Amino acid sequence: MVRQDKLAFRFDCGATWLNLLATRGRTFSRTPVERLASPERFAEWLARCELSPVRPPGRDDLHQAWTLRETLRVLALATVDERPPPADAVADLTAFLARYDDPVRLSTDDRLRREPPATAAHALARIARQAVDHLTGSDRLALKVCQEDDCRGVFIDPPGRRRWCPSPACASRGRVRAHRARRSASNANTTANEDQPPAP
Q1: What percent of the chain stands above pLDDT 70?
Q2: C-alpha–C-alpha distance, residues 55 and 4, integer Å
Q3: 120 CB-contact burial (10 Å; exposed 0-12 / middle 13-18 / buried 19+)
Q4: Nearest one of 183, 51, 182, 178 to 117, comparing CA atoms
């Protein structure tokens, strides 16, 4: 089994908004892993996404991040499963985006940059707009869901060949379970053959 730091941030899902979903690990298990457990951790995550706001995030910003994350998760899973999105999640996301106007102002020094968001909420609005663009365009067709029932992590997989999210733990658990299932099936076949009477 692959061992990894359960609290380490994940930046391997293919887009910032998908990496936000990954800040909660094993979401559908009895013991989910909360990687955004404090405003300081949230600030660290935003910094690593190059979205540090002018005003550092507080506790209310953290709760807003949790709420947006779970709204986007519901919409992402509905999109991948080709189900109609829940109306309340759509309404919540629409209302959130309407509250935060964030004009694009660019600057240049060593490269093209966008001015930093004023607040953590504005940073989240940028992430939410990225999610909306992704979920409503043809890019949605490259989204996949991890087959581990306790994970269901959403990630980008253009070739469509991956069965698990990029987490090594999910792939390892899935392969171990598949191996045991094959071995069990093989043992059952062997036993069944031994119980058969010999041919006349």
Answers
A1: 84
A2: 32
A3: buried
A4: 51
Q: Is the pLDDT of residue 161 over 90?
A: no
Of all residues in the chain, what percent are helix, strand and coil, respectively (each to 5)? 50, 10, 40
Residue burial 141-156, b: 16+ Cβ < 10 Å; e: rest: eebbbbebeebbbbbb
Please state, in angstroms and as integers, the Cα–Cα distance from residue 149 to each residue in 4, 58, 76, 131, 155, following that order: 19, 33, 16, 23, 15
E strands present in 59-179:
106-108, 112-114, 143-145, 154-156
How many Å is the Cα radius of gyration of the chain?
21
Please report which helix (H) or strand (E) contains residue 22, including its range.
none
d(CA 1, CA 84): 37
Mean pLDDT of 49-66: 98
**Who's near 57: CB < 8 A, 6+ residues apart?**
39, 42, 43, 46, 65, 119, 120
Alpha-carbon gap, residue 101 to 81, rounded angstroms = 31
* Paired tokens of 146: 């991890």
- Residues whose CB is less than 8 angstroms from the CB of residue 34 and which lie 6 or more positions away in sequence, other chains included: 23, 24
